[in-house]
Specification:
Layout lengths: L1 E4 L7 H11 L2 E4 L17 E4 L7 H9 L4 E4 L9 H6 L3 E3 L6 H15 L2 H9 L17 E5 L3 H11 L4 E5 L5 H6 L1 E2 L2 H7 L2 E4 L13 H6 L5 E4 L8 H9 L5 E4 L21 H6 L5 E3 L8 H19 L10
Parallel strand pairs: 1-2, 1-3, 3-4, 4-5, 6-7, 6-9, 7-8, 9-10, 10-11, 11-12
The structure holds nicotinamide-adenine-dinucleotide.
Protein name: Lactate dehydrogenase
Organism: Candidatus Faecivivens stercoripullorum
Family: Belongs to the D-isomer specific 2-hydroxyacid dehydrogenase family.
Length: about 325
């Protein structure tokens, strides 16, 4: 079997080599994304694999089908870059990656603690030998009400993590998860915004969740309420969030994701002019923490992503089922 693996990162190579040997594969590895121009690299292959920066739109999928390729894996969880209707029509089998929710859940709790202990300005001070305490007084999670929006795999794991901290847990979702109901109380989204000291977003990006954090929901928040977003940048109306920070209507925000992060996050942009003005502006605030979409990035998760990416292609070519095929 021969596969073309797009968007290969250095940290994936060792695992790819192990799988190549295990399944006796021929692999073409490239750091480029899959698009109409790069599709020809996969000529003669039985399958292709990408990360999330390849646009698997109808044109690209058509091109794959013309080349006789009917197996495609995306080595990440999100599937908003794949035209699944086109894939079904063209009979291209598609899989995504499945990995444990705990990497993102642990990272979420880390961001919460960094916010409430004012770790960003403390870190700045350390670097210039300023060991003063003024302005760094924090709060304890135990006394807080924490709200989780989206109680799927990650949201529920965050609630499990937080259950050890002794805080009160509220949650909201369009469908109830029994484990989340055991750990916290289901309330409406508006109640999350009005009652919680800390709010964390864990829904996918859908029409119903786009700009879930907006002028109206922000106005419901407590003046020292804080937000964490480890899900998708587009869940927040960043203009409204920026105004809330500027006018000190909320206590702080931590974001591992940002609207229009593509082309910036996961790249070294040190000598570039940043194209995302909101990102560059918000970064300055002591109570705004931003990280480069890395909550998922653990050794365990990368191993699972590469394994799902290769094993699903092997299964598809052999006409077998695979547990993370997208129906
Ligand atoms: P999941 O599908 O297990 O859970 C999502 C939950 O959101 C579901 O319970 C669903 O019912 C709920 N939901 C959908 N619409 C809703 C709405 N309108 N209001 C309230 N709840 C709603 O997904 P997951 O594995 O927990 O991942 C959640 C999101 O985290 C992903 O979609 C992805 O965008 C993001 N993510 C980010 C990273 C990162 O590195 N920062 C890594 C993995 C996933």
């Amino acid at each position: 079997m021969k596969f073309c693996i797009y968007e290969v990162r250095e940290d994936e190579r060792q695992m790819l080599e192990r799988l190549r040997q295990k399944y006796d594969l021929e692999l073409i590895l490239t750091s480029q994304p899959l698009n109409l121009e790069t599709a020809s690299l996969a000529a003669g292959c039985d399958g292709v694999s990408t990360l999330g920066h390849s646009q698997l739109n109808r044109d690209v999928l058509n091109k794959l089908a013309e080349m006789g390729i009917h197996a495609c894996s995306s080595r990440c969880i999100g599937i908003n870059h794949i035209d699944m209707d086109a894939a079904r029509e063209l009979k291209i089998r598609i899989s995504n990656a499945c990995y444990s929710p705990y990497g993102v859940a642990d990272y979420t709790v880390m961001l919460m603690l960094m916010l409430i202990r004012r770790y960003k300005p403390a870190l700045w001070r350390q670097q210039v030998n300023d060991y003063s305490l003024g302005g760094l007084m924090g709060r304890e999670l135990r006394g807080m009400t924490v709200g989780i929006i989206g109680t799927g795999r990650i949201g529920c794991a965050v609630m499990q993590n937080l259950s050890g901290f002794g805080c009160k847990l509220l949650c909201s979702d369009v469908r109830e998860n029994p484990e989340a109901a055991r750990l916290g109380e289901y309330v409406t989204v508006d109640e999350i915004f009005s009652r919680c000291d800390m709010i964390s977003l864990h829904t996918p990006l859908l029409d119903s969740t786009r700009y879930l954090v907006n002028e109206r929901t922000l106005s419901l928040m407590k003046p020292d309420g804080m937000l964490v977003n480890c899900a998708r940048g587009e869940l927040m109306d960043i203009q409204a969030v920026t105004r809330a920070i500027e006018n000190q209507k909320i206590g702080g925000v931590a974001m591992d994701v940002f609207e229009k992060e593509d082309g910036i996050y996961h790249h070294d942009c040190r000598t570039d002019i940043l194209k995302n003005r909101d990102m560059a502006y918000l970064r300055q605030f002591p109570n705004v923490i931003m990280t480069q979409h890395m909550a998922f990035y653990t050794m365990e998760a990368v191993d699972s992503m590469v394994t799902c990416g290769i094993e699903s292609l092997v299964a598809f070519v052999q006409g077998k089922e695979y547990f993370c095929e997208i129906a």
